[in-house]
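TRAP transporter substrate-binding protein
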Amino acid sequence: MHRNMIKLAVGLMAGLGISCNSMAAEYTLRFAHHFPAVSSPHKQIFQAWADEVEQASNGRIKVELYPSSTLAKPPAQYDAVVNGIADITATIQGYTANRFPLTQVVELPGVAKNAENGSCIIENLYDEGLISQEYKNTKPLFLFTHGMGLIHTTDKTINTPEDLAGLRIRRPSAVVAKFLEQVGAQPVGMPAPESYQAMQNGVIDGVSLPWEGALVFRLNELTKKHTDIGGLYTLSFIVTMNKRSYNKLPADLKKVIDEHSGLAWSKRAGAVFDELDKKGRAQAVALGQEIVEVKEGINNPAWKPVLDKVTEEYLSELEAKHLPARKVYARAKELSQTCQ
């Protein structure tokens, strides 16, 4: 009799264990992004976010990660969330031309100082309502930027803007494309993960990326020359959620998502990218590659006129469309000084 009771108790416990496991998947959220599964952004930002959400929800929310563009290609990732193909994405606004023009003000030369600073700027612009209208069809969780972009080339040393003339350079966004066009280069649009093969096959002569990108996408293997203009540009990212996926959650689980959103996660993402920039540069140094650091950065007399022109043209184009670009730009510059 005693043994039968023990067996019954064990059976009940096993049954409860199965029930608890099934309860753990009460809500499953598919999270798509383009970074490799072995990369630090995947592990330290997106996987960390998923793990903390699962823990805070007591296992009721399960987050399935789809790295390396396995669920949607980079240009389609935002729409994948709008249309419910993915529940959450981490994507680059610049991959969708003309869709987030006010957001991309943060990408202009000299706005951000590093990734954490840029992330603080862009999240505050959203929280203050200055760019929020651009995301009315999704539920933004947090926005961030990478660090300062550089020019990385296979063979040619870039000392002045004129040195870029005729080169095919991968550009990350319309803002950087404007700069490359101004100096006579040929901007080539492609997602960062495609840069390695394009460079290896001679399709492009170089890329515009931060040190983080050179590291994560293994481009230091192919680029021998690097030019740091000191504030050339940064790139904006967003982690955002399908509205229906968010709205179907009960109030207590919505609170979990809300508590894993906003400035703290923006700055946390920025800090990851800043650390990767250090590692990417250190790798290039260890390989004995040439690094040109432009004296005075974007205020260098050779570079300043063309960069000022890019900024002015971008703001003027947006103002002509009745968008408050100069107001956003002015606030971004203020936040650049106050964001720590």
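thats it. The two ends are 68 Å apart (CA to CA). Residues 1-22 have pLDDT under 50 and may be disordered. bye
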